[in-house]
């Protein structure tokens, strides 16, 4: 499976259009939250309308989780979450938070939601990565990670394989490891023409980070090599 990991578009139309242009090169699109910009100038009603229409145009399976901008009910009552039900894959995870797709089990962690049980080999989608990791810590030292996810990770009988996240735009590292699981956060470059993204090939167990359309780094995700992270 060839997976494209994206995150934190914040209603950037250029990046949504870029995804439509490149989606067919992958088997699956995984998006880890913050579809809308709760603090932007464009009305939220307009944002959710065209984002929902965009998602229906994607030519590949689309799995996603929610971010803080998508559910910020006090600041953005329009984005309280009802519109998310119109997105493809909205019901795929059901009440248990797990979804089998293309031979892999995906686990969705909703923003401020209860972390589902984590199992061996899962690919986890969470807006904020596990607290304490370099993928959830900014260059200035602020930890933007989820303590609940970190606790669930350490409590799991067997760790998931991958944890895909975003939320922190300038992580110390785009890839890190904890309790046997690999954490990935592409980060965000707000001025770039193309969004930061990570491509993952589950057959070769390779991950590649792209910044502004250029290959920036790559990593081996095989368990033995990953222990050295």
What is the beta-strand fraction?
25-35%
The order of strands across the largest sheet is: 3-2-1-10-11-12
- In total, the number of strands is 12
Radius of gyration: 16 Å
Low-confidence stretches: 224-229
Would you identify the CATH architecture?
A: 4-Layer Sandwich
The CATH topology assignment is Purple Acid Phosphatase, chain A, domain 2
Relevant CATH superfamily = Metallo-dependent phosphatases
Order of H and E elements:
EHEHEEEEHEEEEEEH
Please describe the biggest sheet, giving its number of strands, its sense, and whether it closes into a barrel. 6 strands, mixed
Q: List the domain count as a whole number.
A: 1
**Helix segment tally:** 4
Task: Supply the helix-strand structural class.
Answer: alpha/beta
Which shape, going by the Cα principal axes?
A: globular
Note the gap between the termini: 23 Å
Roughly how much helix do the residues carry, as a percent range? 10-25%
Please, what is the average pLDDT? 91
Name of the level-1 CATH class: Alpha Beta
Q: How is this structure best described in words?
A:
- This protein has 229 residues and is α/β, with parallel strands linked by helices.
- The chain has one domain: Metallo-dependent phosphatases (Purple Acid Phosphatase, chain A, domain 2, 4-Layer Sandwich), CATH 3.60.21.
- It has 4 helices and 12 strands.
- Strands 3-2-1-10-11-12 form a 6-stranded mixed sheet, with no helix packed on it.
- It is globular and about 45 Å long.
- It starts with a strand and ends with a helix.
- The C terminus is likely disordered.
């Amino acid at each position: 499976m060839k997976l494209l990991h994206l995150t934190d578009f914040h209603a950037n139309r250029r990046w949504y259009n870029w995804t439509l242009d490149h989606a067919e090169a992958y088997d699956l699109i995984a998006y880890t939250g913050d579809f809308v910009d709760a603090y932007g100038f464009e009305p939220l009603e307009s944002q959710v309308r065209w984002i929902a229409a965009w998602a229906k145009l994607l030519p590949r399976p689309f799995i996603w989780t929610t971010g803080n901008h998508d559910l910020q009910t006090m600041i953005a009552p329009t984005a309280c979450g009802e519109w998310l039900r119109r997105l493809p894959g909205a019901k795929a995870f059901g009440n248990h938070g797990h979804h089998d797709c293309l031979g892999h089990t995906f686990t969705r962690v909703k923003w401020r939601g209860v972390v589902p049980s984590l199992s061996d080999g899962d690919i986890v989608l969470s807006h904020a990565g596990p607290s304490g990791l370099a993928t959830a810590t900014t260059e200035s030292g602020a930890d933007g990670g989820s303590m609940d996810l970190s606790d669930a990770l350490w409590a799991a009988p067997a760790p998931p394989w991958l944890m895909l996240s975003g939320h922190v735009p300038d992580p110390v590292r785009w890839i890190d490891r904890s309790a046997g699981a690999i954490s990935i956060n592409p980060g965000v470059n707000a001025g770039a023409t193309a969004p930061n993204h990570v491509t993952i090939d589950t057959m070769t167990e390779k991950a590649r980070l792209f910044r502004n359309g250029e290959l920036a780094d790559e990593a081996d995700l095989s368990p033995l090599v990953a222990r050295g992270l």
